[in-house]
Design a protein that fits this description.
The chain is about 75% helix and about 5% strand. The protein is mainly alpha-helical and about 80 residues long.
Length: about 80
């Protein structure tokens, strides 16, 4: 008889634990969305833009590949700033 009671209480604990973990996820969701929109998205956009010849006056930036990085490595002012 005791074994059955333990299984029932364990099952109730699992349901309550699952409910609490779902609630915890929804409590963390706003902060996760803020971090994604404020930190991660701009980092990805900056990395993507670093491979283009981006200028605000040009409607569509032109893909230049690693040319921007080659120019930085060859620039003496860059190495002095580090």
């Amino acid at each position: 008889m005791e074994i059955k009671l333990e299984k029932k209480s364990l099952s109730a604990f699992n349901r309550m634990s699952r409910k609490m973990s779902i609630q915890g996820f929804f409590l963390y969701l706003p902060s996760i969305l803020i971090i994604l929109s404020v930190v991660i998205y701009p980092m990805i956009y900056a990395f993507q833009t670093s491979f283009t010849n981006f200028r605000p006056t040009i409607a569509v930036p032109r893909f230049v590949g690693l040319t921007n990085y080659r120019m930085i490595i060859a620039d003496i002012a860059f190495w002095r700033s580090i």
